[in-house]
Amino acid sequence: MTVLMLSILLSFSPVKGDTGLGLIAGSRTGVSFKHFTSVTNAFDAAVAWSFSDDWVSLHSDYLWHSFGDINVEKGRMPWYYGIGAWIAFDDQNSAGIRVPLGLEYLFAGSDIDLFLEAAAGLEVIPDTDFRMDAGFGIRFFF
């Protein structure tokens, strides 16, 4: 309910900032952060956790956005790709690299974005293994 009320209040803000904070849900559920360094480039990060499996993970990526490929009537819908790293803390700590690919909807005249992302990853510590993560989320920009 709090998230709904906050999203309604923030949807009336006239200016969109470069830094966003929100929630991500999916194979990793937690808090999502994004900062645009230019019109087409951004850093993102997330802190995610699982109480049932008893782990916490962090990831960060550098992203490139393509704004001209998908046209929508209102707002903007870029797709993006990037390169990053992740680390997970549990009974056997692990780390690796990841390559995210996503789709983002930036509401016109609002501080809200919605995103959907999949990331292929290569675990390099403690063993070599392939992994795939996916999630969706919402962020509020300020």
Describe this protein's structure.
- The protein is mainly β and 142 residues long.
- The protein has one domain (16-99, 120-141).
- The protein is 6% helix and 63% strand.
- The chain contains one helix and eight strands, in the order αββββββββ.
- The protein has one helix at residues 2-10; strands spanning 19-26, 29-36, 41-50, 55-66, 79-89, 94-106, 112-125, 129-141.
- An eight-stranded antiparallel beta barrel has the order 1-2-3-4-5-6-7-8.
- Residues 8-15 have low confidence and may be disordered.
What does the secondary structure layout of this molecule look like, with pairings?
Blueprint: H1 2-10, E1 19-26, E2 29-36, E3 41-50, E4 55-66, E5 79-89, E6 94-106, E7 112-125, E8 129-141
Antiparallel strand pairs: 1-2, 1-8, 2-3, 3-4, 4-5, 5-6, 6-7, 7-8
Features:
mainly beta; 142 residues; 8-stranded antiparallel barrel; 8 strands
Helix content: under 10%
Q: What structural class should be given to the helix and strand makeup?
A: mainly beta
Return the string of H and E elements.
Answer: HEEEEEEEE
Number of strand segments: 8
Helices, by number, come to: 1
Q: How would the global form be characterised?
A: elongated
- The tally of structural domains comes to 1
**Taking all residues together, what is the mean pLDDT?**
90
* Rg calculated over all Cα atoms: 16 Å
What about the largest sheet?
8 strands, antiparallel, barrel
Q: Give start-end ranges of low-pLDDT stretches.
A: 8-15
Strand order of the largest sheet: 1-2-3-4-5-6-7-8
* Beta fraction: over 45%
Distance between the termini: 21 Å
